[in-house]
Amino acid sequence: MIGFFIALISGALMSIQGVFNTQVTKTSGIWVANAFVQFTALLVCLAAWLITDRSSFGTLIKVEPKYMLLGGAIGAVITYTVIKSMEMLGPAKAVMLIVIAQLIVAYVIELLGWFGTDKQPLEWRKVIGMGIAIAGIVIFKWK
Question: Average model confidence (pLDDT) for the chain?
């Protein structure tokens, strides 16, 4: 149950962060804003590491496959695309499309067992659920 609430908090914070970053971009430019976001995230992570963890950064060398270390670079692209989509579509439409894309890609990753995940069987109820979510976007955008 706690995972459910953590996921809700994550979704809410992602929406708030997207709006904040889009507003910062209006003054500073998209790459300055993106660099600032990534830099402040680094500072928060280092502070949390100092307080709680203290595991060795050297363990990163042991990560296999090495492409798994690209999460931070992907994060920079995510920040850019969230800012641009919110700027062009507005927060509600952008977040709806972002969430649907996340859901579809995550389900495909599970179905195919990509990136070290356990392969899951196709469940039609999940496919129907995604279809309903997509229909919800169409209804939301319908004028």
Answer: 92
137: tokens are 């976007």
**Residue 57: alpha-carbon gap to chain centroid:** 24
* Cβ atoms of 84 and 97 closer than 8 Å: no
Please write the tens of the pLDDT for every residue from 67-92. 999 999 999 999 999 999 999 999 98
Q: How far is CA 6 from CA 13, 78, 118, 138, in A?
A: 10, 20, 22, 28
CA distance 15 to 70: 23
How far is residue 89's CA from residue 82's CA, in Å, rounded to a whole number?
A: 10
Q: What would the DSSP string read from start to end of 81-110?
A: HHHHHHHHH-HHHHHHHHHHHHHHHHHHHH
In the prediction, which pLDDT does 142 show? 72
Q: Give the separation between CA 110 and CA 106, rounded to whole angstroms.
A: 6
pLDDT-derived band at 98 (thresholds 50, 70, 90) equals: very high
List phi, psi (to 5°) of 119: -70, 130
What the block records as the tokens of 74 is 């992907």
Whole-structure pTM value = 0.83
Type and span of the H or E element at 31:
helix 30-48
